[in-house]
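Lecture 7, part B: from sequences to assemblies.

Below are the input chains for today's worked example.
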Amino acid sequence: MKEIEFTWPKGFYADGLHSGLRKKKLDLGWLCSQVPASAAGVYTTNQFCAAPTALTKQTIEQGHQLQALVVNSAVANSFTGAQGEVDAQTEQELVAAKLGISPKLVGVASTGVIGEFLPMAKLKAGINALKLTANHKITEAILTTDTHPKTISFEFEQAGQKCVMTGFCKGSGMIHPKMATMLGFVVTDAKVDGKLLQELLSDQVATSFNQITVDGDTSTNDMVVTMANGLAVADSESLTKDSQDYQEFKQVFQAVLEYLAKEIARDGEGASKLVEVLVKGAASKRDANVAAKAVVGSNLVKAALFGQDVNWGRIISALGQTDVSIAVTKLDLAINQVAILKASQKQAYDEEGLQASLGQDQILIEVDLHTGQACGRAWGCDLTYKYVQINASYRS
Amino acid sequence: MKEIEFTWPKGFYADGLHSGLRKKKLDLGWLCSQVPASAAGVYTTNQFCAAPTALTKQTIEQGHQLQALVVNSAVANSFTGAQGEVDAQTEQELVAAKLGISPKLVGVASTGVIGEFLPMAKLKAGINALKLTANHKITEAILTTDTHPKTISFEFEQAGQKCVMTGFCKGSGMIHPKMATMLGFVVTDAKVDGKLLQELLSDQVATSFNQITVDGDTSTNDMVVTMANGLAVADSESLTKDSQDYQEFKQVFQAVLEYLAKEIARDGEGASKLVEVLVKGAASKRDANVAAKAVVGSNLVKAALFGQDVNWGRIISALGQTDVSIAVTKLDLAINQVAILKASQKQAYDEEGLQASLGQDQILIEVDLHTGQACGRAWGCDLTYKYVQINASYRS
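Predicted structure of the full complex, as C-alpha cells:
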C-alpha cells in the first residue's frame, strides 16, 4: 500500500455545487458508482437519530448495496418529524430517477443546524444540476465549521490488480462519537462482500472515529458509509478473510479511517493543536480506550494544553475519575516524550523546555497504567477562545 | 426556618489567615467546636483520592465525630504519595496539640494544584497563628478561582430552642461531582446522631452537589463535611427520624446544600450566568437527574447560552445521547418559560424576545420527557472566553 494524490477509484464519479442552502459556500454534493457497490455503514447512537441517517441505515441494511450518495450541509434535517422523513425519501427518489436506478441504491446524508426543514425546492434544483465528474467538490460541499476538506487516497493490490481506496469526511464540532461519527465516506474499486465490509467497518470504527472527541457532544447525524464497487478487479472473486489481499485491504482501510479520524480531531472547532493520548499497560482494550478518551476529553487538560501549561495533575484527575483499573502507585506519564512520572513519582524535567514543546501543533501524552498489556489511543484538540466564539454564534 | 445573616452556630469558632501558600490572599483557615460534634462526610469518587480527603474520610468513619477542621487552598496535597499522607497527618496532629484534643477529632482538607507537596514550615507557622474567633475569614481562605465566598445561615427550632445551621463552600472549576464535591462545610448547633447525619448527607448530596457541573471534571479533593455540636439544645435528646423537628432539620439541611451547590454553579469558572435544567415526566428519578445533567453539561449548549443563541437543537442532541427513556415524538421543551417544542413540534415563538431573555444572569430550561412521573434538576453555567483564559493559565 502507498498513499497517492487524492483521486476517485475506478468507476466512481462525484460533483458538488452551491444550491442556496448556505450563503456562498458549496452545500450539496453527490458520489456515484458506475455499478452497484457493496456498502456498509455505522451510524450515530444518539436517540434522536436524524431522518437521512435513519433512511441510509435502513437502505444499507436491506442489501448491503449502494450506487449513489447525496449529501448536503447547512441543514441537518434532524428532529424534523414526519416531514423530515418525507424530505429524505424525496431526495433519495430524485437522485434515483436522475440516475435511472432504484431508490434502494441511494444513500442520503445531511449535516448542519438541527430542527430546521430542508428547503426542498432549492435541493431539487441542486440535484438536477449535479453532474458525473471527477472533481473533488463534494469534499468541500459537506463542510460546516471545518476549516478545510479532509481527504486521503491509498493505492494497493487485489488479485494482482491496482486498486484505490479514497476517504473523505467532515466534522469539527459536536464530536464525541459513540458508534460512528459525523460524516465519513470511504470508497474503493476493490471487490469485497457487503457483509464482510460491514464487519470490518464496525470493528475498525471502534479504534478510529470512536476514539476522537472535540467537545463531548454526540451528533444526531453521524454516519460513516463505505462503498466497494469492485471495478478494479472486475473478473476476480470478492476478498475472503483468509487471503493475503484481505490483510492488505484491512490495513489500508484502517489507515484511511484513522487518518480521517485524526484529521477531524486536528480540525476540531477552534483547535490550535492535535492531541494524541496513548495508554499502555491497561487491563483490557476497553480500559485503554476509555482512559485515553477521558484524558483527551477533559476540558481542563485541553485548556491547559492551549495555554502551554504543564499542569499534569489534570491528566491524573481525568484518569482517576474513570472506572478503569489503575495501579495508582505505579503510574508512568510522559508528555512529548519527556518523563513526568515514573511509578507515580514526579521526575526532574526541564519545565521550560517542555512548556515550549507544547507550542507545537501536535502533542503526545503517554500513560502506562501497569495493570495489564492492552493499549489504546484517542485523539482530540485543545480548548481555545475560538471554540467558544464559534459556538456562541454558530447560527449567525 | 428562616434565612438569617451569616453567623457561626453556638459553640463554633473559626479563623483564617495568609500563611504564605498564596501570594497575597488568605490561604489557611480552621473551624472548631467547643465540644466534639456529630460529623458526617461525602468524598470524591476520583480514584486518585487526595491524602487529606482520604484521612478525613477515615477519621469521620471511625466514630462519626469531629471537633475541628483545618483547610488550606493553593496546594491540593493530591497525588503526593506517602509524603502527602504524612503531611496530612502532621496537620491533624498540629491542630490537635494546639487545641488539646485527640487527632481523631480533627478533619483536614486541601484544595489547589495537584502534584505539589505542602510547604509544611509555612503551614506549621500558620496553624500556630490561628485563633478561636467569630470572624468569617475561613470562607475566604478556602477559595481558589472562586470570585467570592459562598455562605448561608438558617435559623430553625429543635425542642423549642433556636438552632442555627451555617454552610460555606468553595468550587468553580473541576466541578462535576460524582458522590460529593469540592469543599463544602455545614455546621449546626442542633443535636443529631452522627450516623443519622451521614444518612441524611449522603441522601441529599445526590440531588444538590451531585447535580451541578461546570466542566465535567471530578476533582481529586472533593469533600462535603457536616458537624452538629448540639450546643443549642444541650439538655435535649438527639433528633429522631419520626419527630417534627427532624422534618424541619431535614428541610433546612436540604436548603443549605442546594443553595451552596447552586452558588458553585453560578460562580463556575468564567461563568456569566446560572443555568438550571428541570426535567419532568421521566421514567425514574435517576433518568430525570441524568437527563438534566446531560443538558447542563453540554459544551455546545453552554456556549450557545453564552452567545444568547436559541440553538435548541443542541439541547435535543444532549438529551438524545443519554440512555434515558425518552418519548421522542412527545417531547416538550421550554426556555425561560417560552414554549419551544410541544409534542416534539416546533412552536411559534418570539425569537428576538427569547434571545434577549438569554442575556439575564439566570436561565431556566424545562424538559418534559413524557415517559413517567419523576422530576430532577441540575445546575451549571455558560461556557465563556473567560473559562478558557482561566484554565489556560491556572498556575501563573
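Note for the exam: The domain at 2-265 of chain A is CATH 3.60.70.12 (L-amino peptidase D-ALA esterase/amidase). Keep this in mind when comparing with the next example.
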